[in-house]
Amino acid sequence: xxxxxxxxxxxxxxxxxxxxxxxxxxxxxQGINAFDTDAAALxxxxxxxxxxxxxxxxxxxxxxxxxxxxAGRRLGEAHASELGRVMDDENPSIAEAFVLVVGLGGAAGAxxxxxxxxxxxxxxxxxxxxxxxxxxxxxxxxxxxxPVRGSATDPGEREPRRPLAEKNAARTLDAxxxxxxxxxxxxxxxWLRPGETLADARDRLNEVVxxxxxxxxxxxxxxxxxxxxQQVLDASDVARVLGDDGELAAVGHAAQAVDPPESGSxxxxxxxxxxxxxxxxxxxxxxxxxxxxxxxTRGKSTVEVREGRADRTLLVVGGPPPWLNRQAIADGRRxxxxxxxxxxxxxxxxxDPDGEAVxxxxxxxxxxxxxxxxxxxxxxx
Length: 381
Prior knowledge:
Number of strands: 12
Distance between the termini: 39 Å
Helix content: 25-40%
Mean pLDDT: 89
């Protein structure tokens, strides 16, 4: 599907920049922008062309908003139409979906995202989705006061303190759910390794967000001349699973390395190799697909899925065409229906002739509220 991605604020801009670096030439990425009030943050982006970066707001020094969500909301409402016009040269009218990427605990991106979502929905007949990064508990924890220095301290002074992060996130989640077709929370805290800070993990976590965004929305967009999917996945399939009521969704992803299929003349002379289909042992293909599907379903998703349950589920299986065993994919779909309890299961395949692994993407929508989001909501109770 043709996707237009907008990174808002510092966190959203960094992910948009990583997406441009890793997938800038891919067919699914119709357009990409980064919008922020902080000029320095925009200048730090390396892969996103300068014409795709835009500072909004009237601050003379071009700085950020220091956590003031109300100021961010005012700026978003004042500049939403302006930001919409900035995108015009990328032909947003042909996008089949828009994705806003935003750090939910911030101010500039979190403040502007609801207004921009509303503006895009008004202008275009395409769903608007939001990828929202949840703040970690450490970011919002009250700073301790050093009795000698009389100043706020942080052990090791490595984790930035943002005391309003959880409150901002709770309010922004509600606003985006009201204005977006679906919201994909990403639980930063769940993806941290023991002893790791968010600053330490930033690049790795951004890579996870980009990988899963591309795996889901890039499925079905093969390059011209490559294999055509037998079960074509398009924007309407994704929209059917996600719905349009602002529900929460989670993405699981896993890959299983496979050997190149054997091909060539059955006479061993190499004379007719181009005419012979590649061969893959059926049991090996079944095993690879089953492993990838189970890992994608039961492994770590972008956010916790309580008891693995969801109202609607989408399965995408991809990899080298000879490995895409139809019966194994059908069996995997039935297994996921039992695992998730979903009333609606859709599936598609994503053949990749140059791939070296079988992969599975499991999208679950209409999930119960994860524990981390309940904790964040309690901050404003």
